[in-house]
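Hi C.,

You asked whether I'd gotten around to modeling the 180-residue construct. I have! Everything is below, sequence then structure, no commentary in between.
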Amino acid sequence: MDDITRRMDGAVESLRKEFAGLRTGRASASLLEPVMVEAYGSSMPLNQVATVSVPEPRLITVQVWDRGMVKATEKAIREAGLGLNPQTDGNTIRVPIPDLNQERRQELVKVANKYAEQARVAVRNVRRDGMDMLKRAQKDGDLSEDEHKTWSDKVQALTDAHIKKIDEAFAAKEKDITQI
């Protein structure tokens, strides 16, 4: 039962992380987490070549540690598909966050909904695994029919609670995205 709870909590936590990376028109250091920089012959996360900070609500600054990596870092941010236009100033890269138009907001809501649906599917898969485990235990004689029913109800209650958390997180993110 603990394993089921842990896996369902993991699905909800994963969703929260994906939501954190979705841009809502306000600057967030997590926005640049998916950016990979070609550095020293390999591809590495941005946070391993620079310090990312948010000095203003509509600006992210990236302080690159190695002066030789500034151009590669700027290029990685520009080409990350985030719709950002970085500007270099010495070792610092300024990344202004543009206003979101209505069309972009609708796209972001669709993406958020897709993330939420993936989390729901993950929770349902954990539920299915739990139910299969209970059926096997009953078939093997380790669980009586009454115990099976009790545990099944608990697994279903856990599933319902986690789906509700996902729906609430999505509703909050949707409100955040559509708020002007």
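If it helps when you're writing up: The two ends are 43 Å apart (CA to CA).

Thanks,
B.
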